[in-house]
Amino acid sequence: MTRPSEDDLIARYFAPLAISAGADGLNDDAAVVPPGEGDLVVTKDMVVAGVHFFPDDPPSSIVKKALRVNLSDLAAKGAKPAGFLLGLGLPPDWTEAFLEESARGLAQDIEVFDCPLLGGDTVKMPGPLTLSVTAFGYAPRIVRRRGARPGDIIAVTGTIGDGALGLAVRAAEREPAKAPAWVAGLDDRHRALLALRYMFPMPRVRAASAVAAFASASMDVSDGLAGDLAKLLKASGVGATAAIDDVPLSESARGALALDPSLIRTVLTGGDDYELLVTCPPDRFAAFASAVNAEGLDLTAIGRITAGEGLVISDRSGQAVDLGAGRFQHF
Amino acid sequence: MTRPSEDDLIARYFAPLAISAGADGLNDDAAVVPPGEGDLVVTKDMVVAGVHFFPDDPPSSIVKKALRVNLSDLAAKGAKPAGFLLGLGLPPDWTEAFLEESARGLAQDIEVFDCPLLGGDTVKMPGPLTLSVTAFGYAPRIVRRRGARPGDIIAVTGTIGDGALGLAVRAAEREPAKAPAWVAGLDDRHRALLALRYMFPMPRVRAASAVAAFASASMDVSDGLAGDLAKLLKASGVGATAAIDDVPLSESARGALALDPSLIRTVLTGGDDYELLVTCPPDRFAAFASAVNAEGLDLTAIGRITAGEGLVISDRSGQAVDLGAGRFQHF
Predict the structure, then answer these.
(1) Are B89 and B194 contained in the same domain?
(2) Is B141 on the interface with A (CB under 8 A)?
(3) Given A51, A87, A235, which is nearest B124 (Cβ)?
(4) Fewer CB within 10 A of the terminal residue: chain B, N end or C end?
């Protein structure tokens, strides 16, 4: 089988995506980041087949997820996208069909998120498909994890747990023999919605301006709400109380929980939400929520920052719940 | 064997390297690039064990090369380093000794090149060790490949061919049975010097200001002088003549060529030089060379840009030399 050279491959699939002047049509070894105002925020997340996604996930899911997890980090820091670099490690069995579908998917996200491809690198990978995205954005001021203060309200965008439940659905599709009972019990529509949330996470880019304007601390929820909140608390040197009943759930997640209440642990500690976890002084929360709402997203209060250390999560009866290690680790 | 978690590993080995305020001690998902003037130039090169380096190369060589090939791209664009992100895909057999040596090596380069670690990502890699560096720099204006004009002088920094010959020396060390005769014939010092040039390429960061001030076109020589010059010509829509005898060679390379004159092909088409290939109008060349000299580097004219297409390389007798495909392809 004859395959295109690296130059041909770039010219055919990626140059059409490089519409920013700074990319110079991908005819160079470097790019210029479009100028903007405020802090230039950069983030880099690598995703590897078999670790961060299933090797047989649709190519558009793989490549969009690689970009979107980075845009999620930018949004959490209050930054709007300005462009990205794509590092692509292609395993021996790569196909042109894969690249074609990937390029088509990327083209959609470049438009949706107004985030041009600026450059990158394509290499042979004698191992699993690997994508390394570096994304750039501008924030009026970067919002760190470490700004939470006692009394601040803790809130999340969207709904929590769909990504982790979607991962379980996707795993069950691949190995039906190992599928847990709740997956079979759930109706088709909810199963499909959860799998889509896992395969196509939606970075909350539209909330970035509100985060920059109102959040005292912020991060995205990628490794599970409980564990990520614990990280934010540690960085800020504070504690928190949160109520399970206040955590916003989708109809699909509620359906799954009705079939198996023990899934609450998956919901709170599973990964792949890519919602924003923010804190804000109580007197500014209403304005924050309304700014987020204006972008078509929900912002739901789930707890309060306390002085001291540790996270106490309580159930409906007010009892503290022990989530154990409580953190999904990709690494 | 108990291994540190990703957070522990970052805290132990990489946080001490993140001395820039923008890195926030690596306690966040994103960084702020230190502000600067001019074009913000970004570049990203991935390197993979078994493709771009030998898996048993010293850890400091691997990690320094991953950074330096990116700094070489910045220098070629006229940009001085402002910081970098490190993506690290660790294979199942990673060791703490590897990370310790890598961190020590990186610390040296961070100081030498004044290029702080800003952030990155560490992931499990069920495959070969993979490093993906994104480097940032500022140039008064980015110098592209496409600016060469007929009449311009073509020049290179340093010496050409040492990297490719060093790769052969390194390969011979690993498989002595397959070593070519010239490797055994070369004296120990030259063998060692060539291997060092391969393992520790020296990005011409100090020439960046002169490139920005004088070069009409520029790129680094990473895939072989002949092939990279052909790329520059194609991007600029011009042709060139060059003389083999004018290509600057190190004493070590001359020694190797004396033992095997056919190595001239390796010298001109091998990769891993990481010298700068520049063009400049003839009336500005003396000032360009003197600005590069002031930084302790040589700049040697090797040819002229011509109208039309194609690269004609001539030997001592003025005969055109056919280098064949003439390009080393990592991909």
Answers:
(1) no
(2) no
(3) A51
(4) N
| Residues of chain B contacting residue A30, judged by C-beta atoms under 8 Å apart | 41-43, 73-74, 76-77, 79, 142
Query: What distances in angstroms separate CA B202 from CA A108, A188, A280, one per listed residue?
Result: 40, 58, 48
Q: Does A217 touch chain B (CB under 8 A)?
A: no
pLDDT (tens digit per residue) in B201-220: 999 999 999 999 999 999 99
Q: Which of A2-6, B18-22, B270-274 has the lowest mean pLDDT?
A: A2-6
Same domain, B103 and B74: yes
Interchain contact B52–A (C-beta under 8 A): yes
Calculate how close chain A gets to B111, using CA atoms only, in Å: 22
Residue A289's pLDDT is: 98
- C-alpha to C-alpha distance for A238 and A98, rounded to whole angstroms: 46
CATH number of the domain that residue B28 is part of: 3.30.1330.10
> What pLDDT is recorded for position A1?
53
From B129, which residue of chain A is nearest by alpha-carbon distance?
A: A127
Does the pLDDT of residue B85 top 70, yes or no?
Answer: yes
> Who's near B227: CB < 8 A, 6+ residues apart?
B269, B326, B327, B328
pLDDT of residue B331: 45
| Pair A37, A119 in one domain | yes
Pick from B233, B308, B45, B67: which is nearest to A6 by CA? B45
List the domain range (segments joined by +) for residue B251.
Answer: 145-314
What confidence score (pLDDT) does residue B330 get?
42
Task: Name the region of B80 (left: φ>0; alpha: ψ -120 to 50; beta: rest).
Answer: beta
| Helix residue ranges per DSSP H, B113-250 | 162-174, 181-185, 188-199, 208-214, 225-236
Looking at the structure, tell me whether residues A105 and A165 fall in a common domain: no
Establish, for the pair of chains A and B, how many residue pairs have beta carbons separated by less than 8 Å.
Answer: 191
Identify which of A19, A74, A114 has the alpha carbon closest to the alpha carbon of residue B33: A74
Residue ranges of B 97-126 with Cβ closer than 8 A to chain A: 118-126
Given a cut of 80, whether residue B53 has pLDDT beyond it is yes
| pLDDT for B273 beyond 70 | yes
Amino acid at B186: L
Asked if the structure places residue A322 within a domain, the reply is: no
User: How many angstroms separate the CA atoms of A192 and B11, rounded?
Assistant: 40
Confidence of residue B318 (pLDDT cuts 50, 70, 90): confident
Q: Kindly report the CATH number assigned to the domain that includes residue B297.
A: 3.90.650.10
Q: Are B123 and A48 an interchain contact pair (Cβ–Cβ within 8 Å)?
A: yes
Whole-number pLDDT of residue B324: 63
Contact yes or no for A132 and B127 at CB 8 A: no
Share the mean pLDDT of chain B. Answer: 93
B5 vs B282, residue with greater confidence: B282
Taking only the tens place, the pLDDT of each residue in B115-134 is 999 999 999 999 999 999 99
Contact with chain B for residue A36, Cβ under 8 A: no
Instruction: For residue A307, count other CB atoms closer than 10 A to its CB.
Output: 10
- The residues that bridge with B154 in the sheet, in sequence order, are B279, B303
pLDDT at B326 over 90: no
In degrees, rounded to 5, the angle at the alpha carbon of residue A80 between the alpha carbons of residues A78 and A81 is 135
For residues B135 and B151, membership in a common domain is answered with no
Q: Is the pLDDT of residue B317 over 90?
A: no
One DSSP character per residue, B6-75 reads HHHHIIIIIGGG--SGGGGGG-SS-EEPPP-SSEEEEEEEEEEBTTTB-TTS-HHHHHHHHHHHHHHHHH
Residues in chain A predicted with pLDDT less than 50, given as ranges, are 325-331
| C-alpha–C-alpha distance, residues A182 and A198, integer Å | 17
Quick check: A40 and B33 CB within 8 A? yes
